[in-house]
Amino acid sequence: MDKVQHKREQELATVTEMIGIFCHDIHKTDGEHLCHECQDLLDYVKKRVAVCPRMGEKTFCSACDTHCYAPNRRERIRMIMRYSGPKMMFRSPLLAIKHKLTEWFAIKQKIL
């Protein structure tokens, strides 16, 4: 597997987990399935990540100069990330640590 494909899979795993946390807590789903609204957003995210032209050079969508998401979807995913981000440490600690390390190394690279 090449580096870009690995990044796509990591990003999708993180976003999938965040949407799952949000949907379970806010929409009171069973934790294994998403409601229609959240599933629709996840499908949209998968399409956007699959065709991202800058996947090889960016860290995360939030740090990208190119906005692939429609404005209403971008605001929705931001709201979900603000809600789910802090909860990731307790529900998916490995994903949260990987995410923070990637972010930290990217910042360190920019400084140097």
From TrEMBL:
Among Pfam families, the record links this protein to: YgbA_NO (PF11756)
Task: State the superkingdom.
Answer: Bacteria
Q: What is this protein called?
A: Nitrous oxide regulator
